[in-house]
Design goal:
Elements lengths: L2 H21 L6 E6 L8 H6 L5 E11 L8 E2 L9 H10 L3 E8 L6 E3 L3 H14 L25 E6 L8 H10 L4 E7 L5 H7 L6 E5 L13 H9 L4 E7 L12 H12 L5 E7 L1 H7 L6
Parallel strand pairs: 1-2, 1-10, 2-4, 2-5, 4-6, 6-7, 7-8, 8-9, 9-10
Antiparallel strand pairs: 2-3
Helix pairs in contact: 4-5, 5-6
Bound molecules: 2-acetamido-2-deoxy-beta-D-glucopyranose (NAG) (2 copies).
Length: about 300
């Protein structure tokens, strides 16, 4: 077979799979993607213009907490220039795409976060509200104006990606505080094995619209073949929409990577039957772009 034909064949297969994943009546539902882990992934606007995703998780706010009244926060979006992101957020939202900020991140990411006290949770909630949400830039703590990295764009909510936490950390308090402001959606991104300690108290608040379950990442207690872990999450949080989180390329996790047909016929066929199935969570935009896993561009 001529190589050009072969590439064409591959392209057709990917397009066919992409459209069956994205378009079928009983398709995967929502498609959420992490954006912000590699500047080579392109802009937020480009991600939204693929038409593939309906939720973007900007990742990550990697540094927060650590003391009673921490005032040091760090946003790490892998060198993406901040200029223009606010406009891109509005552009995405104008297409009906939700844009959330994910806080925390994998332990391997150079983050340093903890919420050891109710005060640190309250301070973070206030920071998020004034810096990224509808709080308009004035911190209630200090009265000082808070710089808004995305300008006057208002994010739709906050994703809790808490990969490590001590016994008494206060992510539950953070969730309650965020909900005391109006119109803030909260979601959680958890490890596959159920239950996992870092998110248990927060999820017990019942305030999470969505739970994204990472079916990758070297969690040895999580076995794909059984699919048990995902079902446990779905059964444990019937009031949340539960997502199947996958890597979009073998480069991200070669052991956990699933070919599209295995994802569709091996996993989604079953997951979709669960009443609170929410959709797919893709790690991440960069890998999806290079591998054309879900998006075709
Ligand atoms: C980002 O993408 C480039 C290629 O475009 C790659 O060399 C680099 O390792 C990636 N960085 C991360 C953190 O994955
Ligand atoms: C993380 O932050 C705490 C306090 O804010 C500090 O004591 C600790 O050394 C930091 N750890 C790293 C790895 O930066």
């Amino acid at each position: 077979m001529a190589s050009r034909q072969f590439i064409f064949f591959l392209l057709l297969s990917v397009l066919a799979m992409g459209s069956s994943l994205a378009g079928a009546a009983t398709g995967p539902g929502n498609i959420a993607v992490f954006w912000g882990r590699n500047a080579s992934e392109g802009t937020l606007r480009e991600a939204c213009d693929t038409g593939t995703y309906n939720t973007i998780l900007i990742s990550f706010l990697t540094g927060f907490g650590g003391g009673a009244y921490s005032s040091s926060y760090s946003l790490d979006i892998s060198g993406h220039p901040l200029a223009g992101i606010g406009d891109d957020i509005k552009h995405c939202q104008s297409k009906g795409i939700l844009v959330l900020l994910s806080i925390g991140g994998p332990t391997s990411t150079s983050g340093n976060y903890s919420l050891p006290t109710p005060q640190s949770a309250a301070a973070l909630a206030s920071h998020l509200w004034h810096t990224y949400l509808a709080g308009g830039g004035v911190s209630s703590n200090s009265g000082d104006s808070t710089p808004r990295p995305f300008g006057d764009a208002v994010l739709d909510g906050v994703d809790f990606y808490v990969d490590h936490a001590g016994d008494n950390e206060r992510y539950d308090e953070l969730a309650r505080r965020l909900h005391s402001y109006s119109g803030v959606m909260t979601t959680a991104t958890v490890r596959c094995a159920y239950p996992e300690q870092p998110s248990t108290a927060a999820l017990a608040t019942g305030l999470f619209a969505r739970v994204h379950v990472r079916m990758y990442g070297g969690d040895l207690r999580c076995e794909w073949g059984q699919f048990d872990s995902w079902n446990k999450w779905a059964a444990a949080y019937p009031a949340s929409k539960v997502f199947v989180g996958v890597v979009a390329s073998p480069e991200a996790d070669k052991d956990a990577y699933l070919f599209q047909k295995d994802l569709y016929y091996g996993i989604l066929q079953f997951a979709e039957k669960v009443p609170n199935y929410g959709g797919l969570m893709i790690w991440d935009r960069y890998y999806d772009k290079i591998n054309h896993y879900i998006s075709s561009s």
